Amino acid sequence: MSSMPSRTLPSGDELPIVGYGTWDSSGEDLRDGLRTALDAGYTHIDTAEGYQNEDTIGEVLAEYDRDDLFLTSKVLPSNLHYEDVLESLSASLHRLGTDYLDLYLIHWPNPTISLRETFQALERAYDEGLIRNVGVSNFTPYQLRFAQKVADVPIAANQIEFHPWYFQEDHLEFCDEHDIVVEASAPLARAEFLDDPLVTEPADAYGVSPAQIVLKWAVEKGVVVLPKSSDPDHIESNIDLFDWDLDADTVARLDGVDRMENVYMIDLDDEIYGIPS
Fold it and tell me: Which one of 20, 42, 51, 166 is the catalytic residue?
């Protein structure tokens, strides 16, 4: 692993605090971007069966040392019955060309399938060494509380939308209290607000990009960020966060900007049967 800061999971594994996000990425853009990221020092790669790009990622990862990588994937909410979880996991492992995942997440909760049944499958995979850590994604604190009651394996992470315009502070506090790492699935709000003076002004003052300001704000809170880019300069700058600090005034201004403006929404049918964000 690189010297990048990390969060320690309940298993003792170290989760690098910056990962390479691959949502909505495919083909040569993904191949080139992923190689650039790995060569720049990224060791944490985030994907999902719903992203439909695991086979491409597997092709690239075959060129690198698997033991140096932290690899995350997710199971679709339509595949949360016991046997479906295990079949989805087996297919993801095959496409990614690996014997195990460092972290496997329930991509979205599905109220039509027993969460206890889902966790029984995840616990079996965990016991068999197919996954080293179990987590969830897009769960509310209420759903997390219920998951903790039915799970016999620690819930290591919850991947949610998290950025200054959607600062889920209560959610972050709950996860911190329960030793659950928060991962930001859209840490740059999909570039919706990077021209906001709240980030462009401090970016100019620090001599960094607006994206770096937003990512730095999150990692200083212990949040794992998963920026996505195919631009080599952006990929390299998104990891250049650790030899400078935000001043307290900038942090306070970003803390106060929350408008509860999320950048991905999904209706119930898409959440259960479609390809989620």
Answer: 51
